[in-house]
Design goal:
Helices cover 44% and strands 12% of the residues. It has 378 residues and is of the alpha/beta class. The strands form two sheets. It has a nine-stranded mixed sheet, with helices on both faces. Strands 10-12-11 form a three-stranded antiparallel sheet. Helix 9 runs parallel beside helix 10. The protein is globular. The termini are far apart.
Amino acid sequence: MLKARDYWLIWSQINGVGSVSIQRLQQHFKKLEIAWTATANELIEVEGFGKQTVDKIVQQRSQFNPEQFLEQHTAKNPCFWTPADPEYPRLLLEIPNFPPVLYYRGIVEPLENQGITPMVAIVGTRTPTEYGCRWTRQISMTLARRGFTIVSGMAAGIDTQAHRSCLEVGGRTIAALGTGVDIAYPKENLQLCERVMNQGLLVSEYPSGTQPNARHFPQRNRIIAGLSRATFVMEAPQKSGALITANVANEFCRDVYVLPGRLDDKKSLGCLKLINGGASRIPVNLEELLAQLGAMPPLDEPQQLSLFEIPVQPPKSIPDLDPELAQVWQALSSEPTAFDQIIVNLNLEAGNLSAALLQLELLELVEQLPGMRYRRIN
């Protein structure tokens, strides 16, 4: 007999149905297993579900054998959590678009999943300077020695420095991947992945065998931010994936700390922008930093929704966009549009749309509002 966790996994296989849609299904029908057998007329009553979406669900569902899929899938992916599992990381459940399925490999620490062990993210450019590497190592080691779990993305550069430094002092680290947990990327980090598995955890929303895909890495950044009470941006140019992590951390009401750099250093311009927007500078005295981290308020306290005030600017010229990005941008207006409604309007898969929206955010053409709503900036 299928369990509640099985239906989180099953629904995640339906194209066009993402995390927010699955949550709405559960809220509407109370149980995902009831939603699985719902008629088209019943499904269309769910918030954000239009006729196109419902027709796609009904068509895919009719060709889907849940029992056969589960047998084959779990044989290749024995270790995963869904929101129906008590082990699913508590902090990740507090973000609006948490992964319906989180695969893992390594050593599980229950206190981390319960949100008791403090976890912080350290992210930055793939091509850091000596200054960025030095401070990354110092902060990662200092926090690891004080019992913090270091979260990063296993990318080259700052991420790699953060993971390695933590492991060198016997700390725990979690790597959120844009591939399956059985794939080392970049390949140069194969040994580092193995060390993390022996001393920490690899996590991903993608099943085993999933190869690197440029669309996956911006998407996984929300997992890095979602697992962490605070995010440290060590070095980041103006167009950097680390800025996505910082911005989503801010949207999740988590603290953002930034390593200040020189005004004429291109690799620090993204950091300087975050500081100008209200993010906290990393203090020179690391004891002061530890005191600040120890004073972080509970996550359920009301906090400011955005640290970054959007200044009034003249309309921007629109750069040349590839066809899919242009299609998404043209579908938006200055009025907020729900993520699920954009899926219906454009008939895109949720993963592809998420990646496109993240790229447009990085280009500062689109902004995300609370509740997974998006609008044009200009």
